[in-house]
UniProtKB/TrEMBL annotation:
It comes from the Bacteria. Keywords: Membrane, Transmembrane, Transmembrane helix. The chain crosses the membrane at residues 7-27, 39-60, 72-92, 112-139, 151-171, 191-210. The keyword Transmembrane applies. This is Uncharacterized protein.
Length: 221
């Protein structure tokens, strides 16, 4: 029953989710609205508790075993509690203060300051570092080892030249040709990939609803 109950819930809710797109009856639509607006919020609240518990358990185990880079786990745990306390009791911004003081002189550390002063710069730094990995991957992908790689290399070369103002002045037809590559072959490939992804999502959803795919239960039969 421990494994059958989740399978039954997924089967019933999955079939019901499909029926809402087929049957426009008010009872079906109202029930679907309750699922989307109320029950999903309750599940989301439980998922926050589950996520926080999972993060704390993972990092406390690393700290206890002194695993590789265990010092960063302390930073994660402390940052989690500090940001949670400030977010819950310190207010959102200076115009809406909370129970705890979040300003010392001209320095403010409310939750909006943490987001704009820490999260945004850290995200920009992460993307800046990823640019080097993307450049390395592009170098490996653009080597003309076969026909497909050669087509990719030539297309990228044309697109880059089409975006350069000097090249536009020398070859006037090049920007139009670059736009055609983006509008026709690129769009066709993107739609084909999107179609394949949609079929994959549909197949995976059916396998989960029908109980064929049970990896989300933790493996086993």
């Amino acid at each position: 029953m421990k494994r059958k109950l989740p399978l039954i819930i997924v089967l019933v809710t999955g079939i019901f989710g499909v029926l809402t797109y087929i049957i426009p009856h008010p009872i079906i639509q109202d029930t679907d609205a309750v699922f989307r607006n109320d029950i999903l919020r309750v599940i989301g609240a439980f998922s926050i508790v589950l996520g926080i518990g999972s993060i704390l358990r993972h990092h406390f185990i690393k700290i206890k075993r002194k695993a590789e880079h265990w010092g960063y786990s302390w930073i994660t745990v402390v940052a989690l509690f500090v940001s949670a306390i400030i977010g819950l009791f310190g207010g959102i911004d200076p115009t809406r203060p909370g129970l705890l003081p979040t300003q010392v002189g001209g320095f403010s550390f409310h939750i909006q300051s943490l987001f704009t002063g820490l999260i945004v710069p850290l995200g920009s730094t992460m993307f800046a570092l990823l640019a080097f990995f993307m450049a390395s991957a592009a170098y490996r992908a653009f080597r003309a080892r076969n026909l497909e790689a050669t087509l990719l290399l030539v297309s990228a070369f044309i697109l880059m030249l089409g975006a350069v103002p000097l090249t536009r002045m020398i070859v006037r037809e090049l920007p139009s040709f670059a736009e055609w590559i983006l509008a026709v072959p690129n769009t066709a490939a993107k739609r084909g990939i999107g179609f394949g992804i949609s079929l994959g999502i549909l197949a995976t959803s059916l396998k989960i609803i029908l109980g064929i795919e049970r990896g989300w239960l933790g493996g086993g039969e």
